[in-house]
Design goal:
single chain; alpha+beta
Length: 104
């Protein structure tokens, strides 16, 4: 059994104040333009399966199966999301992070 813990406690993501299932700042702040389709697919998957603190854990094999991508594409997508500070990752735990301004 995997023990879930916050990777970045200071950046716990909370639902956005506007009515939208996905935070509109992904468009407004140009995150979408910085990502390829595989990266966006991984982000959408993680946002969808995350618990109230943004945490989820899926192994690489299962993610590749769900997203129809190979392990190298998954690694690239994950690394890019980490660089953009949209997620934190400590295998096998993912945390969807708060976007800038969530704690202002």
């Amino acid at each position: 059994m995997i023990h879930k813990h916050l990777i970045c406690p200071a950046k716990v993501r909370r639902p956005p104040p506007q009515f939208s299932w996905i935070d509109q700042r992904l468009i407004r702040d140009h995150y979408v333009e910085l990502c390829d389709h595989e990266t966006l697919a991984l982000y959408l998957f993680l946002v969808t399966v995350a618990d109230a603190d943004g945490l989820s854990y899926y192994g690489d094999q299962r993610l590749c199966q769900c997203l129809n991508m190979d392990t190298s594409a998954l690694a690239r997508a994950r690394d890019w999301l980490v660089r953009l500070q949209l997620i934190a990752y400590q295998a096998p735990l993912y945390q969807v992070l708060a976007l800038e301004g969530d704690h202002d």
